[in-house]
Predict the 3D structure of the following.
Amino acid sequence: MRYRKIILILFLTFFGLVCFISPTRAETKTKILYPSRDTYTDSFVPDDNYGSSTFLFVGDVLGGWCRSYLQFEKSKLPSNIQKVYLRIQIIYISNTLLLDIYTTDEQWDEYGTTHNNRPGAYLFAYILIPNSGQATIGLPDIDFPTVFPTGSYITFMLTSLDNEYFYFASNENANFDPALLVDYTVTESNLPLIIGLVVGIGAAIGVGAIGAFLYIKKKKARVESIQKDVGKPETMKPATPTEIFCGYCGANVTTAPGKFCPKCGRTIP
């Protein structure tokens, strides 16, 4: 009976787990995209190009207005995007400033873009930059394929209207590449987990059933062995009644001691 209860509990546990576990599960992952192109422009030298520079400048630098451009391939963006972050390594900042982030899907040449031929862009986000070091900037929650339906690339242009500036490592700086961090969800199957549970609990139930069968069989054999050793009980014979004689006249009487003898009338000792 005990083994049957154990098997029943295992079966109910297995049934409950299978019913509780969803066939699929959603998991959040992060994909890192590095710029396919980057450069900056300087209004002080409007015809110069800085596509090969290891640093990108933002803001008011010695009287010139600097804008930095980072381009990413749209084809590398995953689906089911949850959140997007722009990560840059700020090497130096003159003072706390408000960073303006513009975006565009217009084409531009990394080694040909200057202040005079820079692509048009529109304001996308802004954030306060307090100090140097790694800055991870959360971008607005948007559907990127919908907002940028044309073109193969997305460009973020970084600038500031404050009279301050900073510069950060470019894609040519192998130690501190700028990057786009994309959090997205993927749907994965729970089938391997369910199969594992079915096999594991099925094996446990099978082992329990075999154990119960062997236990019952062994117990039955033991009972039969004990019965064989003891044998059948002997049939008891009825007790022979004891004969009583009168101590005075010697008559054979059936009266119990202490009663009167029916022959002589005396008390039977």
